[in-house]
Design brief:
- This protein is mainly alpha-helical.
- It has one domain.
- The protein has a two-stranded antiparallel ribbon.
- A hairpin with a 2-residue loop joins β1 and β2.
- α1 runs antiparallel to α3, α3 packs antiparallel against α4 and α3 runs parallel beside α5.
């Protein structure tokens, strides 16, 4: 059996893939991971179980939760901006609507703070949990929709039809026996 010799042109094809792979990794995958991280931080006020157990300052936790919620919104908006080019044109208005909704949610975030003051100094910072839950529920709906759309565009999982293994074997045999 003879093996196919690779030509200089074959190298160019792989470099195109490398650029696409880097783009997907840096501009899409990174933000998908950050979205999960920021959601956990917004929910719990810290990033790990040990911090949750040993961090006793609720004011710090609540400050972290609010900042993480802002970062979560920013991460979703960035993901939308980085993927809008690849989705169907019929779905782009939905992405614009999601971005507008996230901008409105961002304006409501300051209402989450319930501050107890002694003079001019904040002694206690709590969060309006019912408003927080409504915001998180809405964000879940947005991110679920965005994930479905970018997956349909092939940016998360490759969208392919069922593979015919026998046909693939035949093609490989032909390729390597020529």
């Amino acid at each position: 059996m003879a093996f196919k010799k690779f030509k200089d042109e074959d190298v160019g094809e792989s470099s195109v893939w490398n650029d696409a792979k880097n783009y997907v990794g840096g501009k899409i995958h990174k933000w998908l991971i950050l979205i999960d991280d920021y959601e956990s931080l917004a929910t719990f006020g810290c990033s790990g179980l040990y911090n949750d157990v040993f961090l006793r300052d609720d004011n710090l936790k609540n400050t972290a939760r609010i900042q993480a919620l802002k970062r979560l919104i920013h991460a979703i908006k960035t993901l939308i901006r980085n993927t809008k080019f690849a989705i169907k044109s019929t779905d782009k208005p939905k992405f614009i609507e999601h971005t507008e909704r996230l901008n409105k949610i961002l304006k409501v975030v300051p209402l989450l703070k319930i501050e107890t003051k002694r003079g001019n100094k904040i002694t206690e910072l709590n969060i309006n949990e019912s408003l927080f839950e409504k915001i998180i529920d809405e964000i879940h709906g947005i991110i679920d929709d965005v994930n479905v759309e970018i997956n349909k565009a092939g940016l998360i999982f490759t969208q392919s039809e069922e593979m015919d293994i026998e046909k693939m074997k035949e093609n490989l045999e032909k390729e390597f026996t020529e």
